[in-house]
Amino acid sequence: MVLGEFDFSKYLGRWNLERQSTDGATMDGEACLTRSGQRFDYEERGTLRLANGQNFPFSRSYYFVVESGNLRSYFDEALSSLFLDLRIVESDDKHVGYAVHPCSDDRYQATFTFEQSSFTTEYVVEGPRKNFVLTTTYSAFPRRFMGDK
Fold first, then answer.
1. Residue-wise pLDDT tens digits, 39-77
2. Residue 77, by phi and psi: left (phi above 0), alpha (psi -120 to 50) or beta?
């Protein structure tokens, strides 16, 4: 799907992900973006490491749809629940999407930055219950050839 000159389908496939939070938590793992008709399915899995040293398996799913010139992200478990309505703009040699999501009294301000061979997401979360910045970097998943270990 193309939003102006932005082609979201070029990000289909598997990605390494590294996530950092200003509260000291980190996550690493992989993400996969696939397409089914007009819908782009996103799934991530990895290990969450809390600042206190505890480790947990982590997974999350969303889906994206291009609607009204925006990239809309929905919670996968509630098929009609809009999470983000990203307005994509061109900035230098990249595309950037901006959106805000209210979560009770907290507020998630999202910035998605799409570059040639990587992309990042940043959530600035502010409110009475949550205050942190969550940054995720997605890099190309290494391609393996038959016989590689």
1. 999 999 999 999 999 999 999 999 999 877 789 999 876
2. alpha
For residues 87 and 79, the model is more confident at 87
Separation between Cα atoms, residue 114 and residue 1, nearest integer Å: 14
Token output for 79: 């098929």
CA pair distance 95, 4, nearest whole angstrom: 10
pLDDT single digits (tens) 107-133: 999 999 999 889 999 999 999 999 999
Sign of the Cα pseudo-torsion (141, 40, 62, 108, in order): positive
Please state, as a whole number, how many other Cβ atoms lie within 10 Å of the Cβ of residue 42: 18
**Nearest-angstrom CA–CA distance, 131 and 143:** 37
Q: For residues 31 and 42, is the Cβ–Cβ distance under 8 A?
A: yes
Other beta carbons within 10 Å of 60: 14
Residues 6 or more apart whose CB falls under 8 angstroms from that of 66 comprise: 1, 3, 8, 38, 72
